[in-house]
Amino acid sequence: MTHEHEHILADGTVIKHSHTHTKTKAVLNRMARLIGHMQAVKKMVEDGRDCSEVLIQLSAVDAAIKSVSRVILKDHMEHCIVDAIKTGDNESIEKLNKAIEQILK
What we know:
13% strand; 2 strands; Methane Monooxygenase Hydroxylase, Chain G, domain 1
């Protein structure tokens, strides 16, 4: 999937660029599986399944979310951030830094 956007630098310069996210289909497939897994966990809770079983499944969901986050982060760094460095787009780099801070909390 190609992503197009523009940034306005502090000096008023407008930078327009696009890049391709090579992992979009893989990410969407992982997200679909995650949603299905979460629905299954919800059903476990509705059915009164053992709390330990629910916690184990939630741990698996948590690991899967972290895994898809790593795929997105790697793809973002390989494409968006490389372009941002080439064009002097500090805004994208700042956004990445904020996202990483959130991930590491």
